[in-house]
Design goal:
heterotrimer, A alpha/beta (247), B mainly alpha (191), C mainly alpha (245), A: 38% helix, B: 191 residues, mainly alpha, Rna Polymerase Sigma Factor, Chain: A, 8 helices, globular, disordered C terminus
Chain lengths: 247, 191, 245
C-alpha cells in the first residue's frame, strides 16, 4: 500500500475542505474526479506533504509524513505537479528539471541521465535548451510533468496534468501514465472525464470533501445507465453520482 | 538557433551546425546515419556494444565536429570515427570476443584481428551495395575482380557484348567506391 | 510522448543495411544527450555543495535572485559610491545605506514573493527552511563583508564601521516578514527601505544627528527584537503555503 488514509480531515478556518476521507491505494493509476471546491486539490496537497492534515491518519509509502525524517524519505520518492506551477523564466527546460532533481536529493551522478530521460519522455528533446519564457502553455505543462517524473517516483501526484495539451499529446500522456502505474501509485486529479476512463484503473469521485464513489471506470459508467446528463457514458455516470450526492 | 528544418539540411550543413553547438543537428545525424553504422558495426560487435560504440562515436562527433573538412564525405568521416571506437573496444576485449570471419579474402592473416574484423565488415557492406546476389553488378564483380577473368571471357559467360561488360564493371567500381567512402551515388539507378 | 522515432533509414546512401532489430537508437541518443546536455556546476557551487553536504542546497544558494552576479555587482557599485561620497562629504553614507541594501537583498531571496514555484518547493526533500537559512546567512554575510570593507575604505570610525550591522538585522527581519506576508518581494524591499528611512529621520529628529539611528546603544535591543519578530513572522507565514485550492 502506497497511500493509506483514515478519517482524513483538513480545515481552513471554519470550512472543511477535506471532510473525512478513507483511502487505500497500491500501484496503479487512480483518478480523482469532482467539481471545483470538492477538495481534490487539498487532498493532493496533503499527499504531497505540502500541508499537514488537521486530523485523521495519513501514511505514505509506509511512512508517517508528520515526522521530519520519514517526510524527507517520502519526498525523495515523490513526484508532484501542482495545479498551477510557476516557472523560472530565465531557466532552460534542462535547468528547471535538473533543479528539482537536485532538490529531491537524487544522487548527483544519476542526475544528468535522469534529466535527459525525463525531458525525452515528455517529448521536449527539441526544446531542451530553450528558455522557459519562450515556451507555450502546453509545453510548460510538459516541463512540469518532466520534473515530477525525473526521480522515477513511487508516488506521483498530478493536479490537472493535461491542461493545455492537445489531443495527440494527451493520448501519449495517458500511455505514459499506464506505464508508470505498473510500479508506482499515480493519482491524477482532473476535470476531464475521458482522461480518467482511458488511463485509470480506479476512480474516486469527491463531493464537498468526501468520497462519494469509489470503483472502476466501468462501475462509474454503470451508475449512469439509468439516466444522467452527459454526452459520454462515463460523463453520465459522473453526473448521476453527483446528483445522488447532492440530494 | 534560428528556425530551420534540420531534416532538409545536408550532412555538411548538419556537421557545421553541430560544431556551432546545435544538439538537434547531432540528433538528426544520428537518425540519418545511425542505422547503417549500426548495421556495419553489428557484423563485428554484439548488440549492446554496438549501442555503446555508437554512443561514443556521436559523442566524439559532438566534440570533434569543428575538425570536419566538407570536401570529404560525411559518411566516410563518421565511419572513420566509429571504426576507431570499435577497434578500441575490440582490442580491449581480446580475441575471444571477436565475431571473426573464417579467413580474410586474400588469405593473408592480418596481424591485428580487430583490423581484420573491421575490414571484413566494410567489404561486406560494399559488396552488398552492388545489389542482390545474382544481379548484373555482382556477377561482373565476382567474375572480373574476384576470379580475375579477362573481359572477353566474362562477356561470353554472361551472354552480353564486351561493351556491356565494361560499362557494368565501371558501374560496379563506382558503386563500390561510393559505398566504401559512404557517398551517395550521383547518377540515377542503372543496370 | 517519447520523442521522434530514431529508426528512419534515409534513402540516397549506398545500402549498408537497415537498423539491426536488437539495436535501439533511442537508447543511444539518451546516452549521447546525457553527456551533451549535462550542466557542469561552477566552482562556487561545487564548494558550496561540499560545505553544505548537499548539491541541492548549493544549487538553491547560487540561484538566489539577489546573489546573482548582477545584483552583487550593483551592491558593490552602490557601496563604493557611498564610500566615495563619505570621503568627500564626511557624512557616513555607507553606514546609512548598507542596512537598506541588505534588506532589499533578503526580500529577494526567499518565499512566495520571489519564488514562482513556491508550492512545488514546499514538497522538496531539501526543505525550504534550510534554503531560507542558507540564503539568509549567505546574503547577510556578503552584505556585512562588503559593507565593512566599504566603511573601512571610506575612513569611518570603528563604531560606525560595525555599528550598522545591528540595524541591518532589524531591517532584514522587517523586509523578510513583509515579503512573505504580502507574497511580494517588492513589498518587502519597500518595507525595509521605509523602515530604515523612518528610523534615521526619527533619530535625527530626536538628537539632531543623522547617525543616531546607528550609534545610539539604547536601540540595540529594540533592533534585535525587530529582527527576531520579523524572522518569526516569516517562518510562521511560510509554514503552510497558501495554495490555490
Amino acid at each position: 500500500m502506497n497511500i493509506e488514509t483514515a478519517g482524513l480531515i483538513r480545515r481552513f478556518g471554519r470550512t472543511e475542505a477535506v471532510a473525512g476521507v478513507d483511502l487505500q491505494a497500491g500501484p496503479g493509476v487512480f483518478g480523482l474526479l469532482g467539481p471545483n471546491g470538492a477538495g481534490k486539490t487539498t487532498l493532493l496537497r496533503m499527499m504531497a506533504t505540502v500541508i499537514p492534515p488537521s486530523s485523521g491518519t495519513l501514511r505514505l509509502l509506509g511512512r508517517d509524513p508528520g515526522a521530519f525524517g520519514p517526510r524527507r524519505e517520502i519526498r525523495r520518492r515523490l513526484g508532484y505537479l501542482p495545479q498551477s506551477l510557476g516557472y523560472y523564466p530565465s531557466f532552460t527546460v534542462l535547468e528547471f528539471v535538473e533543479y528539482f532533481a537536485l532538490l529531491k536529493e537524487l544522487p548527483p551522478a544519476r542526475v544528468p541521465g535522469a534529466v535527459a530521460a525525463a525531458v525525452e519522455q515528455v517529448g521536449l528533446g527539441d526544446k531542451a535548451r530553450a528558455r522557459l519564457r519562450t515556451l507555450s502553455g502546453g509545453m510548460l505543462r510538459r516541463v512540469g510533468i518532466a520534473q515530477a517524473i525525473v526521480n522515477k517516483p513511487e508516488l506521483l501526484l498530478l493536479d490537472e496534468p493535461t491542461a493545455g495539451l492537445d489531443p495527440e499529446q494527451r493520448v501519449s500522456f495517458r500511455a505514459m501514465l499506464r506505464d508508470l502505474g505498473q510500479r508506482a501509485s499515480v493519482v491524477v486529479s482532473t476535470h476531464l472525464v475521458e482522461d480518467v476512463g482511458a488511463a485509470c484503473t480506479e476512480v474516486a469521485l469527491m463531493h464537498q470533501g468526501k468520497i462519494v464513489f469509489r470503483g472502476t471506470p466501468d462501475e462509474l459508467t454503470a451508475r449512469g445507465v439509468a439516466g444522467g446528463a452527459g454526452d459520454a457514458p462515463l460523463e453520465r455516470g459522473y453526473t448521476a453520482v453527483l446528483a445522488e450526492a447532492r440530494s | 538557433m534560428a528556425y530551420c528544418n534540420r531534416g532538409e539540411m545536408d550532412d555538411d550543413g548538419l556537421i557545421a551546425a553541430v560544431a556551432a553547438g546545435d544538439d538537434r543537428a547531432l540528433r538528426e545525424l544520428l537518425s540519418r546515419h545511425g542505422p547503417w553504422l549500426a548495421a556495419r558495426l553489428r557484423r563485428v560487435l554484439p548488440a549492446a556494444e554496438v549501442e555503446d560504440v555508437l554512443q561514443e562515436t556521436f559523442l566524439a562527433v559532438w566534440r570533434g565536429a569543428a575538425g570536419y573538412r566538407p570536401a570529404g564525405s560525411a559518411g566516410g568521416w563518421l565511419w572513420g570515427i566509429a571504426r576507431r571506437q570499435a577497434a578500441l573496444w575490440l582490442r580491449r576485449r581480446g580475441p575471444a570476443e571477436l565475431a571473426l570471419p573464417a579467413v580474410p579474402a586474400d588469405g593473408r592473416a592480418l596481424a591485428d584481428p580487430a583490423e581484420a574484423a573491421l575490414q571484413h565488415a566494410e567489404l561486406a557492406d560494399a559488396v552488398n551495395a552492388l545489389g542482390p546476389a545474382g544481379g548484373a553488378q555482382r556477377e561482373v564483380w565476382q567474375l572480373m575482380y574476384v576470379e580475375d577473368r579477362p573481359v572477353a571471357e566474362v562477356a561470353e559467360l554472361m551472354g552480353v557484348p564486351e561493351g556491356t561488360v565494361k560499362s557494368r564493371a565501371y558501374r560496379a567500381r563506382r558503386l563500390m567506391r561510393a559505398a566504401l567512402r559512404r557517398e551517395p551515388v550521383r547518377d540515377g539507378g542503372g543496370r | 510522448m517519447s520523442g521522434p522515432e530514431l529508426t528512419g533509414d534515409r534513402g540516397g546512401l549506398a545500402a549498408g543495411g537497415p537498423l539491426p532489430p536488437d539495436v535501439d537508437l533511442g537508447r543511444v541518443w539518451l546516452g549521447v544527450a546525457t553527456q551533451v546536455w549535462r550542466r557542469r556546476p561552477g566552482r562556487v557551487e561545487r564548494l558550496a555543495g561540499r560545505l553544505l553536504r548537499s548539491p541541492g542546497l548549493a544549487r538553491a544558494l547560487v540561484t538566489t535572485p539577489s546573489l546573482l552576479l548582477g545584483w552583487v555587482i550593483a551592491t558593490v557599485v552602490l557601496l563604493a559610491a557611498g564610500a566615495v561620497a563619505t570621503r568627500a562629504s564626511g557624512t557616513p553614507w555607507v553606514a546609512l545605506c548598507a542596512p537598506a541594501l541588505a534588506a532589499a537583498g533578503i526580500a529577494y531571496a526567499y518565499g512566495p514573493g520571489i519564488d514562482p514555484a513556491w508550492e512545488l518547493s514546499c514538497s522538496m526533500a531539501v526543505s525550504d527552511r534550510m534554503v531560507l537559512l542558507v540564503r539568509a546567512l549567505a546574503l547577510f554575510g556578503l552584505n556585512a563583508l562588503l559593507g565593512v570593507a566599504a566603511s573601512a575604505v571610506s575612513g569611518a570610525a570603528a563604531a560606525l564601521t560595525f555599528g550598522w550591522l545591528i540595524p541591518m538585522t532589524a531591517m532584514c527581519g522587517l523586509a523578510l516578514a513583509t515579503a512573505t506576508v504580502a507574497r511580494s518581494a517588492n513589498a518587502g524591499v519597500a518595507a525595509g527601505l521605509a523602515g530604515w528611512v523612518i528610523a534615521v529621520l526619527a533619530g535625527k529628529a530626536v538628537d539632531g544627528h543623522v547617525l543616531t539611528a546607528i550609534t545610539d546603544s539604547a536601540l540595540v535591543l529594540p533592533y534585535l527584537a525587530i529582527a527576531a519578530c520579523g524572522t518569526a513572522i516569516a517562518v510562521y507565514m511560510t509554514r503552510i503555503p497558501r495554495g490555490t485550492a
